[in-house]
Amino acid sequence: MVKRLLNEPSTPCIRRCCLDADDTCIGCFRTLEEILGWRSLSEAQKKQVMAECKAREELRKKCD
Q1: Fewer CB in 10 Å around end: N or C, the chain?
Q2: Distance between CA atoms of 40 and 38, rounded to whole angstroms?
Q3: Model pLDDT, residue 11
Q4: Using an 8 Å Cβ cutoff, are 31 and 23 in contact?
Q5: What pTM was estimated for this model as a whole?
Q6: Residues 6+ apart with CB under 8 A from 27
């Protein structure tokens, strides 16, 4: 088993992958572009994407 670095963000994927009409996953709230590019993002970029995912999730809860 490979140990992750202490401050390395893990993927927000929860294995509930399904894209909505805007190509945003309804499980982790990443866009298709973010999902496909995840491995090439820097640590700072991953943290930014995760913050954006959280904001999308909160917005979705308000709209539902």
Answers
A1: N
A2: 6
A3: 85
A4: yes
A5: 0.80
A6: 13, 14, 15, 16, 17, 18
List the structure tokens of 39.
Answer: 């491995």
- Each of the 64 residues of the chain gets a pLDDT tens digit; together they read 344 455 556 888 988 999 999 999 999 999 999 999 999 999 999 999 999 999 999 999 888 7
How far is the C-alpha of 64 from the C-alpha of 62, rounded, in Å?
6
Sole residue written with tokens 């917005």: 59
Residues 38, 25 contacting (CB under 8 angstroms): no
* Helix, strand and coil in the chain, % to nearest 5: 45, 5, 45
Token look-up 């298709």 returns 32
Q: How far apart are CA 16 and CA 9, in angstroms?
A: 19
